[in-house]
Amino acid sequence: QVQLVESGGGLVQAGGSLRLSCAASGGTFSNYVMAWFRQAPGKEREFVAAIRWDGIMKYAADFVRGRFTISRDNPKNTVYLQMDSLKPEDTAVYYCAANGDNLLASDGHQYHYWGQGTQVTVSS
Hints:
The protein is mainly β. 0% of the residues lie in helices and 49% in strands.
């Protein structure tokens, strides 16, 4: 059973920054594609970014517009989401996801393992 635990969320003013972390256990982390999704109040889950097992290839949603950066530290079994220039519309619960293949998918159904999420709130 693969377990994913997110942390690093909180309350920040517009224009500020946060770094989210996702710690993995129970699997071979270095072989997994990792991704971040988010779900805002009253809205459906949406894709944020994904990173290949070796960290070389990345894929991000258009709304990120260079503000967010996904990275991973395989020796620490951890994936990160650095969020800069945050906007109120970034307010959401952010979820970490994983799957044991090489596909950088934006469809959440392609990911088999999920964390419980961490709340990010951006004030005006």
